[in-house]
């Protein structure tokens, strides 16, 4: 790693451990730094996640960090340093991973396992080097964030920091420390002085002031709600009514917060040997919670801990923050970390950025009931990538989820996104309690028709903490236990493991593996699901992008069709057929289509039905939810963003193979 100037002393060192993404700064830590500095402390955000890439080398790093969170392999990787007296058998752990992988995953899984085994011996040296590098800053408090697979890496660092300097005050917070997880982390790992459950914006400065002025033995009465301290190991842990019984700090409003301070990230990026491979993005937070979840909690969603209350920033603050960060760091890529886009922004924030002299590239999560004019506004405003919450194309499954939308809306949104060059990330989730296999069979037929639209994945239902399935398993006929790999990570009793885990398995027996493993299937034989899996698999293997593209030529439509299901490469649609097809652009109900065509064109229902049959035979329409959707896009179609320009940032391979080598010669023996 490149040498740097002697670090300045800081009161609080805020640490972002692996495997956090290296293409973006930590929003949470950068916001806390701004708050602490505003309130008179010295603070710095450090990025060992970026050091880790240098330490092990680009190639090994790239493959190791690709591991899906629920596979727990990165937690296992760092557990050796977090719990050095609890070495577990690697062969058994990796055997479990192989058992859960399907055929499509085997090759990539073997590569990850090979790289993980190669990196494994380097972890103790990396943790020791990182701890010593942080201690050179002479901080009084070292605080780690913990999200997804960061927990054992953070615990390992805090343990080593405490071993090297017992006077250092250690702290941990983040999604892995919500409510009972934070309580159990604090209870089981004595080198952690404080654990913070929930939103720390309002409590971090008073807490740090109390600790720095009076030491770690802060009386329970002086600790903010949601903070577990050394006193609780003696007096017992605080409880609350509701949720899982343990407190979580929540702020009433996110207006008035300072802008996050990303200077430390860009300083680190400038010194990183792989800086040429990192196309960075900036995270922004314009809301917390979920306005839809307040009304109807999607059954599988475990986001937001035990709180779903929705709070959004004023349009003025959103605009000011994005413009400030863009001007300061000369960047126009932004990733909104919000669970859902505030629909009011379509009338305020988005029109502002549409008129901006800059061309922004922004990612947002949205609800799937966006109208075509909403998607057009997204494009014009620079929101070129969304995750629209499409988790099924079947209305009956969507009802099981509590999604509040229907199949036709999801397909229509995919169509609008592709027409407007807005990338849409989505997936079909399978194996919901009470789902029927015939629904997958129907979905498989629809998928073949929409192969020219943004492609989704097929994944199995995952049981996350705080989801309705986890909170009320009996209501869904479930019996859950922590994902088995956790047993090879944490040296705690089974009941404590259930309080640490974020991911859970059902105890049912299932015929499908990989992403579809260990989740409730009501029937032993699922031909519909297998058919759907095969179609999605085959579409991924295509070496071209299918088209269903209409061009207006006088009184006719010329429709180019290169989908695998195409019955002809070109369709000439004119007369009644064109009138009917264009009347289906907005997905009318069939009854509404009959009424419109009768009123405006004098069509009888029989004539409409006959024309629909012609279009159906050409596979140009989809009839779903008693609606009729025209599937064709219209020339011109906006191009999708280039991969290197995606708003979530990109990690590119180094230009020279030699540049992928590790730089762990700086390790302390």
How would you characterize the overall build of this protein?
There is one protein chain. The protein has 669 residues and is α/β, with parallel strands linked by helices. Helices cover 38% and strands 14% of the residues. It contains 25 helices and 26 strands. Strand 4, helix 9 and strand 5 form a beta-alpha-beta unit. Helix 5 runs antiparallel to helix 6, helix 16 packs parallel to helix 18 and helix 23 crosses helix 25. The protein starts with 11 loop residues before the first strand and ends in an 18-residue tail after the last strand.
Name the descriptors.
alpha/beta, 26 strands
Helicity range: 25-40%
Which geometry do the CA atoms define? Answer: globular
**Gyration radius from CA atoms, angstroms:** 27 Å
Uncertain runs with pLDDT below 50, 5 residues or more? 509-523
Q: What separation lies between the terminal Cα atoms?
A: 16 Å
Structural class: alpha/beta
Q: Average pLDDT, to the nearest integer?
A: 92
Number of strands: 26
Major sheet details? 6 strands, mixed
Strands across the major sheet, in which order?
A: 2-1-3-4-5-6
Helix count, per DSSP? 25
Beta-strand portion reads 5-15%
List the helices and strands and how they pair.
Layout: E1 12-15, H1 27-38, E2 43-46, H2 48-56, H3 58-64, H4 73-82, H5 90-99, H6 106-119, H7 123-135, E3 141-145, H8 151-164, E4 169-173, H9 179-188, E5 194-196, H10 204-214, E6 227-228, H11 232-235, H12 263-271, E7 278-279, E8 282-284, E9 287-288, H13 291-295, E10 311-312, H14 315-329, E11 333-336, H15 349-354, E12 361-365, H16 372-381, E13 383-387, H17 395-401, H18 407-420, E14 423-424, E15 427-430, H19 437-449, E16 457-460, E17 463-464, H20 468-471, E18 480-482, H21 494-500, E19 503-506, H22 527-540, E20 548-553, E21 556-561, E22 570-574, H23 575-583, H24 590-601, H25 605-617, E23 621-624, E24 627-630, E25 633-634, E26 650-651
Parallel strand pairs: 1-2, 1-3, 3-4, 4-5, 8-11, 11-12, 12-13, 13-14, 15-16, 20-25
Antiparallel strand pairs: 5-6, 7-26, 9-10, 17-19, 18-19, 20-21, 21-22, 23-24
């Amino acid at each position: 790693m490149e040498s740097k100037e002697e670090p300045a002393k800081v009161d609080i060192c805020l640490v972002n451990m692996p495997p956090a993404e290296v293409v973006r700064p930590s929003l949470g830590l950068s916001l806390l730094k701004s708050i602490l500095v505003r309130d008179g402390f010295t603070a710095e955000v450090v990025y060992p996640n970026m050091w880790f890439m240098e330490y092990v080398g680009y190639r090994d790093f790239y493959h190791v960090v690709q591991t899906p969170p629920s596979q727990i392999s990165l937690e296992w990787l760092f557990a050796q340093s977090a719990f050095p007296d609890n070495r577990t058998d690697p062969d058994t752990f990796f055997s479990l991973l192989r058992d859960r992988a399907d055929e499509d995953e085997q090759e990539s899984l073997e590569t990850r396992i090979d790289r993980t085994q190669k990196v494994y011996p380097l972890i103790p040296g990396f943790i020791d080097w990182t701890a010593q590098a942080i201690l050179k800053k002479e901080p009084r408090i070292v605080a780690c964030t913990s999200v997804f697979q960061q927990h054992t890496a953070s615990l390992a660092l805090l343990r080593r920091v405490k071993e090297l300097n017992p006077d250092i005050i250690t702290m941990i917070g983040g999604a892995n420390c919500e409510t009972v997880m934070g309580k159990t982390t604090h209870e089981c790992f004595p080198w952690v002085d404080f654990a913070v459950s929930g939103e720390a914006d309002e409590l971090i400065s008073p807490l740090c002031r109390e600790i720095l002025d009076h030491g770690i033995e802060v009386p329970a009465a002086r600790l903010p709600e949601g903070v577990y301290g050394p006193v609780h190991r003696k007096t017992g842990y605080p409880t609350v009514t509701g949720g899982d019984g343990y407190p979580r700090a929540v702020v009433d409003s996110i207006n008035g917060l300072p802008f996050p301070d990303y200077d430390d990230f860009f300083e680190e990026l400038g010194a990183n040997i792989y800086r040429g491979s990192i196309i960075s993005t900036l995270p922004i937070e314009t809301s917390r919670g979920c306005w839809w979840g307040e009304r109807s909690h999607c059954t599988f969603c475990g986001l937001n801990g035990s709180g779903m209350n929705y709070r959004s920033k004023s349009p003025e603050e959103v605009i000011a923050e994005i413009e400030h960060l863009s001007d300061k760091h000369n960047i126009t890529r932004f990733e909104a970390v919000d669970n859902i886009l505030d629909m009011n922004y379509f009338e305020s924030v988005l029109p502002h950025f549409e008129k901006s002299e800059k061309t922004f590239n922004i990612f947002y999560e949205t609800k799937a009931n966006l109208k075509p004019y909403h998607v057009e506004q997204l494009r014009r405003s620079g929101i070129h990538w969304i995750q629209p919450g499409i988790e099924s194309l079947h209305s009956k499954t969507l009802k099981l989820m509590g999604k509040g939308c229907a199949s036709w809306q999801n397909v229509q949104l995919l169509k609008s996104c592709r027409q407007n060059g807005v990338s849409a990330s989505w997936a079909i989730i399978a194996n919901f309690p009470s789902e029927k296999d015939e629904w997958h069979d129907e979905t498989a037929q629809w998928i073949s028709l929409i192969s020219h639209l943004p492609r989704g994945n097929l994944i199995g239902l995952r049981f996350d903490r705080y989801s309705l399935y986890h909170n009320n398993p009996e209501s869904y006929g479930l019996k859950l236990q922590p994902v088995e790999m956790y047993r090879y990570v944490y040296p705690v009793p089974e009941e404590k493991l259930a309080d640490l885990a974020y991911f859970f398995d059902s105890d049912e027996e299932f015929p499908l593996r990989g992403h579809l493993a260990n989740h409730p299937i009501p029937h032993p034989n699922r031909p519909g699901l297998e058919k759907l899996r095969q179609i999605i698999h085959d579409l991924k293997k295509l070496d071209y992008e299918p088209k269903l593209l209409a061009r207006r030529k006088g009184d006719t439509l010329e429709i180019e069709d290169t989908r695998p299901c195409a019955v002809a490469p070109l369709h000439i649609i004119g007369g009644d057929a064109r009138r009917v097809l264009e009347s289906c652009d907005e997905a009318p109900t069939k009854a509404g289509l009959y009424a419109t065509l009768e009123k405006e064109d004098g069509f009888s229902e029989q004539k409409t039905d006959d024309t629909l049959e012609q279009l159906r035979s050409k596979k140009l329409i989809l009839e779903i939810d008693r609606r009729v959707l025209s599937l064709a896009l219209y020339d011109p179609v906006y191009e999708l963003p280039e991969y290197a320009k995606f708003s979530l940032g990109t990690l590119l391979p180094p230009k020279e193979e030699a540049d992928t080598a590790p730089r762990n010669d700086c390790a302390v023996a």
